[in-house]
Amino acid sequence: MAMAMANPAPLATFCSQPRTLTPCNSLRGFGVIAHSRALALTATPVCSFRLRVRASKGSSPPPYPLSEVFPYVAAEWRTIAKGWACAAVAVYCLSRAVPAAGRLPRVLAAGVGGSAEGQIPRGVVTVAALASAHAAAAYVQQALLWEAALRVVWRLREHAFERVLARDLAFFDGREGMAAGDIAHRITDEADDVADALYSVLNTIVPTSLQLIAMGTQMVAINLQLSLVAAMVIPCMCIVIANLGERLRQISKKAHLSLAMLAAYLNDVLPSILTVKVNNGEHKEILRFHELGFGELKNNLDKKNMKALIPQAVRTTYIVGLVVLCAGSIAVSGTTFDAEGFLSFLTALALFVEPIQDLGKAYNEYKQGEPALERIFDLTRFIPQVRDKPSALHLKSVMGDIKFQDVTFRYAAGMPPVADGVNLHIRPGETVAIVGPSGGGKTTIAKLLLRLYHPQTVLDNHDIQDIQLQCLRTHIAFVSQDAMLFSGTIAENIAYGDPMGDINMRKVENAAKIANADEFIKMLPEGYDSYVGQRGSSLSGGQKQRLSIARAIYQNSSILILDEATSALDNRSELLLKETLTTFMTNHTVLIIAHRLEMILMADRIVLLEGGKLQEITKSAFLSGDGHFGSPEVLNP
Ligand SMILES: Nc1ncnc2c1ncn2[C@@H]1O[C@H](COP(=O)(O)OP(=O)(O)OP(=O)(O)O)[C@@H](O)[C@H]1O
Questions:
Q1: Which of 190, 370, 412, 587: CA 20 to 30 A from 502?
Q2: The CATH number fitting domain 64-380, selected from 3.30.200, 1.20.1560, 1.10.8, 2.40.30
Q3: Which ligand 1 atom sits closest to the C-alpha of 609?
């Protein structure tokens, strides 16, 4: 009889997301942590939200997503107020420039006619000064409002990511689990759409209204002749747009790259959510995310500033060109320029082209951003099932006495129970092997002990639901069958469970020796500083498994769970590992989930999990089981 092949990993759906980018150097090290910690002072969201539970992922969204983003926007009120103050200055300059410009033709004609020879007419200086002040104020207004919108989104992203990490494993797992790519897209691209929408709204409410009111008072009849002259300025504008457009393209490329890095990072870390959780890595990941998010903020801010500059530069070109053309036509024709026509043109330009265009654009942007906003908040609205009670205990140390008492568990209502009245007592320092058919529920038992779901299990006479989650997971080191590694160096991966993010090289090397990984690590060109590639892609399955074991040993928890931790090792490596592990296991409580004989025989006791029921079997019954408990190839290699 054969012990069946291992099932696909429970997180298989999650892990099979297509890769995005190879992470660049800034993603390689965990060295960002120290810097991130400093930045964290400025990054902590100032707002907290009342949690809301959605009946299901597909339930209809609340009607006013803007109201949910309001606390984030309110946190940026200073920047917004400054932006709106600049808007008031810009509109004021424009309203003063219109009558001054209305007098300009007369002033210009007088100047060209020789009445003020050798001097720039005062009216020209006034208009130029007002136009420059308007352009500068409008530029600063837009830059500030972009900064506010982007900072809102930066905070929103951090909040969403923090909430995603706090989600139950069930949110990521199983058939209903949310895909990593979807989450990454919401937090990156769609958040960007939200920034566009917010900016449009901020830039429209006050500035456009002000401009419309101010210009309404200045309105005069339109001069068609002047409009035709104005059209001749268009080629100049095209040259300006082409040049600045090329610069914008380059800046945008950088901004896109930083956004792609963010997406790559998310696609890297979210498939490893199990490892993050069991290593209490949430805080570390929040800091790493913060670093990349801040880089994206900078590049995007450059892009938006350039986008703000372009219309101002184009408008300046337009007005300067217009003045030159008017002056030229007056000089050539020798006639007095129609002042009313010039005034009408500027008024029409101000009243109809700019604010109305802005209103239309703002509406479109908002409509584009609204679903994105909703989808981001959808990630954050939940109450985790697995959470600390207010009175949860912090245990400094545990002996490792584990009791499963009549535990029944099913993944979803209507599904058969994976554990059906399971009773198991593992005494401190004992090694117990769980065997059974593939899909029998062995990994589920380990997950229940780690409280990744909501079980009733007892550790050191405490119901694990009464123990702080972070504390519980510190006392249990878990090596999953998927050998999850992060992009980073070997040393960083082994020391991942360090709560402070430090790397103790002595402990790293010791853990690697026990895991029989020291030999191959030392043969790598950069030894412990070797980069493992995305998700450890530069290492073999067996090497990855040994690093995962070293990570668990580094954690030095009282309880060690090895879930098919040696399935990819060759016989020699497994024997060497067995020798070093045996000493380590003497003062630890160890739960071995395995199909391989060598590992199973390391246990003091063997229990069989089949059809949700657990029963103890003797080693002799196991060995003479004729394959009932394991495959003949493994039992008789
Ligand atoms: N997140 C999930 N949602 C729904 N069902 C799940 C989930 N994870 C596992 N299962 C199901 O629960 C059962 C037990 O899975 P588990 O991974 O515990 O088995 P196992 O004994 O460890 O298998 P193997 O030896 O192949 O690793 C399987 O039938 C599996 O399909």
A1: 587
A2: 1.20.1560
A3: 21
Q: What does the pLDDT look like over 236-286, one tens digit per residue?
A: 766 776 677 677 767 766 776 677 678 768 877 887 888 888 888 898 899
**Cα 43 to ligand 1 centre (Å):** 39
User: Ligand 1 centre and the CA of 613: distance in Å?
Assistant: 14
Indicate the fold that domain 482-556 takes in CATH.
Answer: Rossmann fold (3.40.50)
Q: Is the sign of the CA dihedral 226, 229, 231, 236 positive or negative?
A: negative
**CA pair distance 155, 46, nearest whole angstrom:** 9
Q: 441: closest CA among 424, 463, 466?
A: 424
Domain with CATH 1.20.1560 in the chain: 64-380
What's the CA gap between 184 and 507, in Å, rounded? 34
Give me ligand 1 centre to Cα 6, in Å: 10
Q: Ligand 1 pocket, 560 CB below 6 A? A: no
Q: Which pTM was predicted?
A: 0.72
- For residue 134 and ligand 1, the question of a CB distance below 6 A is answered with no
Structure tokens that stand for 169 in this block: 């494993």
Of all protein residues, the one whose alpha carbon is nearest to atom 11 of ligand 1 is 439
Q: What is the CA radius of gyration of the chain?
A: 33
In tens, the pLDDT along 88-126 reads 898 888 777 766 666 666 666 665 554 445 555 666 788
Q: Whose alpha carbon is nearest atom 29 of ligand 1?
A: 439
